[in-house]
Amino acid sequence: MTTITDPPTEQFRLSMLVNDTRYRSATFQAIAVILLVASIAYLGSNLAKNLREAGLNISFNFLSTPAGYDINQTLISYNNQDSNLRAAFVGILNTLLVSFLACITATILGVFAGVLRLSQNWIVRKLMAVYVEIFRNIPLLIWILVIYGIMTVSMPGPRAFRGDDATSSMILDAVAFTNRGVYIPAPVWGPGSMVVAAVFVLSVFGMFAYRRYATKLLYDTGRLLPMLWPSVAIFFVPSVLAFFIMGSPIGLEYPALKGFNFQGGLKIGAPLIALWFALSVYTGAFIAENVRAGIQAVSKGQTEAAGALGLRPGRIMNLVVLPQALRVIIPPLISQYLNITKNSSLAILVGYADITATLGGITMNQTGRAIECVLLLMLFYLVISLCISLVMNIYNNATKLQER
Amino acid sequence: MAETARLQVSDEVAISITNMNKWYGAFHVLRDIDLTVYRGERIVICGPSGSGKSTLIRCINALEEHQKGRIIVDGTELSSDLKNIDKIRSEVGMCFQHFNLFPHLTILENCTLAPIWVRKIPQKEAQETAMHFLEKVKIPDQADKYPGQLSGGQQQRVAIARSLCMRPRVMLFDEPTSALDPEMIKEVLDTMIELAEEGMTMLCVTHEMGFARQVANRVIFMDAGQIVEQNEPEEFFNNPQSERTQLFLSQILGH
Amino acid sequence: MSENNNKPAVAFVRDTPIPASAPPSNAAGPIRWVQDNLFSSWGNAFLTIVSLYVVYVVLSSVLPWMLGGVWNTSSLAECRDVLNGRSAACFSVLSERWNQLMFGFIYPSEFYWRPTLAFFLMLIAAAPVLFFDLPRKMLIFTGLFPFIAFWLIWGGTILSPLLALVGCLLGYMAYSKLVTRTFAAGFFGGIAVATLVWWIGGLLIPENASENAMLPAVASRDLGGFMLNMMLGVTCVSLSVPLGIALALGRQSDLPVVKGICVIFIEFIRGVPLITLLFVASVMLAYLFPPDATVDLFLRVVIMITMFSAAYIAEVIRGGLAALPKGQKEAADSLGLDYAQAIRLIILPQALKISIPGIVNVAVGLFKDTTLVSVISMFDVVGMIRGPLLASTEWNGVYWELFLFAAILFFIVCYSISQYSQWLERRLATDHR
Prior knowledge:
heterotrimer, A: mainly alpha, MetI-like fold, three-stranded antiparallel sheet, C: 18 helices, flat
């Protein structure tokens, strides 16, 4: 046997840059970097040249100048003398508001429709299929415009509620649908209302604590306490008691017709409703498909195996099917949330003042700072989607199946 | 049996592995492997799972990279030079446990792909060669079917034919029968025996001890990344020297 | 009792097979079906009745409105006269403004046959791509189609599409000559030859070639209506597939720099809404081109939408690549195929086949998203409705009919594409892969 254990080292040749596995990847990566830098430099020089020719520059000073326009739906105080930055911030909050609302309703709708698509009832199944197909195959933009149309064209004006020969009336004297938006009662937080709220939060915790305790008792002693009724009781009873003991501190302010318009209560503008509702039903159709796929992904063998062990149908659902189905459902669900957030940018169509409509719409048009506005806009959405994918990664890592 | 044992082994070296080591991260998979394969040898490698036997033969055609030591196949050093790697791969045929036929190509296309693209043989000639080898593995009538339409045993025979179309000088088999139903194992083994009788140099990772007795001129037992014992089959099976070999043989032959 | 009966009979041979018989009458039939599917329990029966009521309410309000619609008046006022207080649809806006909805309001009406012809040719061109059983020779027409369609829709001199075609053909010939040596030689050789042909040819085509051309030229900004949606959808999807493949391969590559570039690109595009990319197209992209180049809005929008869908298609293809067993690459390696050959001959054909349903889904989504161009004041079908139609004096106030029409148009296209995708998925599942 030879004593040489490693191959003799060769003299370096230029051809080894491509042919030798040791240098090959470095060569290709170097080429990639050079190409990238070259194209960025090319685009950058074009940009600089064009800006110079147009007499423009890149500057973010416009953010601190007064915006000069009004926003009809704001979550924080704002007037047209506030800066563009604050207007953008109002927009961000509005984006988050409509996304958040739509995420909740879309999830409810989607889970509902997805479960019903697997119903034993033929006609329910078919109706849900029609819902899913109709909403998935027609652009969201059309839905937003249609629902906005229903809100503004078909709803009565506030005038219709007036006088003795009113053609429209408020529902339960509390909710009014008008072409300017929907008026609902606003909660009024009186003194002592914080106590009620605190009791409510505590009782939610208490409910979960009770359920944990019951499970622990089952595991330790084999004794099974009833779950459902005590949970419901813990959820409601203390809050209701506290509410009356504190002397009904939380009241409602009803909207009322004063002059030509409704006063008081909470106004949800037509644009917000159109956007919220359209995003919900549209995304709900997609979520329904995810939910259906998730439940179907749990193989029938799992249900059968659990049944063979003697578990009752309810327990099979809770202990065997749902934990597995959620693993399949939640990742696409989270990306649907991301889609909702991105699609909320269509607000600009109906004049809902989200970030795209404020920063990317009016501010951009008034200041002419197109490049800066578009970049900031993209940055905002990127941050949101990075946050959402972070959540997704955490979830995926936490629930990864332990497999060989 | 007696006939195959008489097969000549030349003294020309086909593969020479010297002091070869391989790690997966910190895990030392192959330790100081020294192995010289002469032309015409039929070597069976066995050992418990995780002993590194598959890794060893996958190192020979650079499917896995070794970190230390030398591998010389047919006088070509397996180095980091891609040209050498490509040369060795086209000289060495390999059959996998899961056949790895290309499901989107017909049997005939599976067999002609590499000759056309690697050896630059004209299509017509490549097809003639392919039909020749398909006849040899006894499935010329399936040439226009897709792999998915064939049984496992047929697929593995196609895989052997596909390798042979490259006219390899060495054949590597990585557990060629362990994914097969029992009744299909024989047809694949028969093909391999035929190949051996024609003097092909073969390295075969397998647990088919009958095959080893009948065809091999050398049996190698590996454990924990090392070659523990090697011997002629008669001697290996009847009179194993190492304790670990004895234990292994008693476990797989015991039932 | 005889002794025989005490022994259990173990041995048994069946000599007469039992023939299949019909099920008992209560296990099949329509009544049984209704029982099982509609009224299996009280809850179910309740659901059935509620659903039937919902269907009745919807149909009873929508059907009369639709069926009683008026199709042949020339303005809303006239239509209202005809309806005479009856609540029904004024579909006459559709028949009267059909051409505008389809082609936009500036496209010269005497040339409507050109995009129409291009549309039907597109169906022929798409067929062999969508249905594998059709003769492969039809792909030749698919290859020619882009040039024909360009010429038909934009018109102008036939020399430019012809030159583009010749460049592509010569480039392809150079590629197939050189690719047997190495892929890189073929790829760059092909591009070099094509560029050379285009450059030389571009010098040869006279400036005024478009004057008095067989098909008079139409400017990009004159395109509109549903035609614009179709053109954007088809162009961007077909352009983004190759780009998506490259991005997916880059993302799977073991070169960290290449992988990093691809990941950043894909995640960036997927992280922002399409609308912001369209803003880029309308207000920003022009700054990135050389000052003397004029790139019209249509092309800028095509660039951005292509990048957008390429990122999504890349993710679909990445899934397809990941779904392939590792053994395929190993088998290709062990036969001595190099990286480019293994990818081109073994990996991609299989990965693409798996990815087709996903790509089709992206295509449906993208097609729906082409309506967003109305935000940057391009007059696609939604843009036409929101702009010129609703603002016109004749039809100001026709709202539902127009949106219903647009919705049905998109539904037909998207639903049939997604049905195709499901059919394909079923077929691939049973295919002899």
